[in-house]
Amino acid sequence: MKALVLAGGSGTRLRPITHTSAKQLVPVANKPVLFYGLEATAAAGVREVGIVVGDTHAEIEAAVGDGSAFGLRVTYLRQEAPLGLAHAVRIAGDYLGRDDFVMYLGDNFIVDGINDLVARFARDRPAAQIMLTKVSDPGQFGVAELDLEGRVVGLEEKPARPRSDLALVGVYLFTAAIHDAVAEIRPSRRGELEITDAIQWLIDHGHRVESTLISGYWKDTGNVADMLEVNRLVLESQDARVEGRVDDASELIGRVVVERGAVVERSRIVGPVVVGTGAVISDSYVGPFTSIAADCVISDSEIEYSIVLPRASIAGVRRIEASLIGHDVEVTPAPATPRAHRLVLGDHSKVQISS
User: Fold this and answer.
1) Which residue of 43, 137, 153, 221 shows the fewest CB atoms closer than 10 Å?
2) Domain 238-331, CATH 2.160.10.10 — does that match?
3) What is the pLDDT of residue 353?
4) CATH annotation of 2-232
5) Where are the domains of the chain?
6) What angle do CA 89, 94, 95 make, to 5 degrees?
7) 127-186: pLDDT as tens digits
8) Which residues touch 129 (CB under 8 Å, ≥6 apart)?
9) Structure pTM?
């Protein structure tokens, strides 16, 4: 079995962060989201991986390399534009050949991995196997319709009137039959080759399509709120570890990781928190569910439930919450300016003003 990992999307919902970096490399607990997917693929026993890349190919290739760090052999496949998941399968046709494969969206996060899913597919070998999860807003996803016996009978991409609340999770398994389907479908109203249309073609032509309702945690990390939530989840599972320097005037509470080369001075950190290599925290408070990346500087500030990317600097700021702060950002207080209240008050008024 091979894997096809999609890392070519533009990440419009994470702008402006993704104006200058690939969305799949935005870190969760100081590790790029893409790496979690590659690790899950390797853990499932897959070794040959094709990574579909687009405009950010240089950054992806520099981060992943030849895949040996993950126990993988990586081949890069260029996609000229994000023209749909089925288009990615089409351009990977020569690489995949007639092998079974797992398709993994590089910005998705599945906490329990894909071992069981891959094992079930290898045992039963349907033409396609999909993962489903219940969502409150199915119109934003590919949606599956099941019959009374739980078999997949219909699929639709971002329907205006969803027929169920079962959304497709960003992991799919296919036999070579999917190539016939991809060759037959046409672009949707969005101008993309939809993988849901390809799977529907399989159903319509008598191929067996099975589904698994995911019981673990899944997130599409395509927006800031979901990134912060996945960051929270990963940090919850970490153990305390201090390899950097923490002075006697500082206090670490709970599951706090201070990486080698990091410095904490006169500060209070309440975990779960990770402080990356070379970061300096001084005279500050860092609250739960915060990831501070390598070489950041946090001084005389308070921050909580946030992700701070490498080399960012925050100085003299109270208070930052639920934020995603990019590479090399500088955050400082605004200059003090005179403030005045302009009032027109009637007779006998009573006014309370917070200064």
Assistant:
1) 137
2) yes
3) 77
4) 3.90.550.10
5) 2-232, 238-331
6) 80
7) 999 988 888 888 888 888 888 877 888 888 888 888 888 988 889 999 999 999 999 999
8) 117, 120, 121, 172, 173, 174, 209, 210, 211, 212
9) 0.84
